Amino acid sequence: MKIGIIGAGLIGGTLARRWTKLGHEVSIANSRGPETLRDLAKETGAKAVTVQEAANAGEVVVVTIPQKAVPDLPKGLFAKVPKDVVVIDTGNYYPVRDGQIADLLSGTTESEWVANHLGRPVIKAFNNIFFQSLLDKGTPKGTPGRVALPVAGDPPEHRAKVLKLVEELGFDAIDAGSLADSWRQQPGTPVYTHDLDAAGVKKALAAAERSRLPEYRNNADTSLKNFLASQK
Predict the structure, then answer these.
(1) Bridge partners of 153?
(2) How many whole angstroms separate alpha carbon 165 and alpha carbon 3?
């Protein structure tokens, strides 16, 4: 499969490493230009490209950048990308990193906000797992305790393609419904960064309460704030 990745951070770089090993043709971009990705390209075999080239790279495009950077993507980035190309959003909103985004603070679902900016439907996936777990914890289907990942978004045929990609990476893929349901896997929710198995993911998704989203976000934001402070 031909896959474009916009964003070469921890998740973007990890997906590039995993997918190239599985034989996929990966094109990866960041905001600083292809020349800054030479080492990653050499290591993985992925092709370092511009953001525009990554958006037009093939059957799947992953947008994996900080929430605050989404509005800075080139205008009309997906205007000429065929409608059957699947767009994956791995993003999470952390006010301590991304600043005050009024729509998100007032309750707009994070990936719906991203979809509105991109002008494209998106599938929310790979947002609730640490990069190290994504790199190391994939196991064969049927392995006891196999880590599971939720996948939410529209249209259903795009979601189905991402569910298959998740399985191929060694995780049980859980259909988490439409994009309107994707709030259940946002930062701080019960399913977020706990490396649960399939039963655990389903239980955690069901346990999420929309009225508690501000609480979930504040808890996640505090955790990130403490982590950043510890790195100084």
Answers:
(1) 123
(2) 11
CA dihedral 88, 90, 96, 99 (to 10 degrees): 0
Give me the helices (H) in 37-155, please: 38-44, 51-55, 95-98, 102-105, 110-118, 131-136
Phi and psi torsions of 27, nearest 5°: -115, 130
Phi and psi, residue 192, nearest 5°: -80, 120
Spatial distance between the Cα atoms of 151 and 173, rounded to a whole number of angstroms? 7
Residues in Cβ contact with 61 at an 8 Å cutoff, skipping those fewer than 6 apart: 3, 4, 5, 6, 54, 55, 78, 81, 85, 86, 87, 88
Q: Please report where in the chains the tokens 């994996």 appear, as a residue.
A: 64
Given a contact cutoff of 8 angstroms between Cβ atoms, the answer to whether 148 and 201 are in contact is yes
Q: Which amino acid is at 72?
A: D
Amino acid at 162: V
Q: How do residues 51-74 score in pLDDT, each as one tens digit?
A: 999 999 999 999 999 999 999 999
CB 165 within 8 A of CB 126: no
pTM score: 0.97
User: At which residue do the structure tokens 């958006």 appear?
Assistant: 55
Cβ-proximal residues to 169 (8 Å cutoff; 6+ apart), any chain: 18, 19, 22, 134, 138
Nearest to 26 by CA among 52, 58, 51, 50: 58
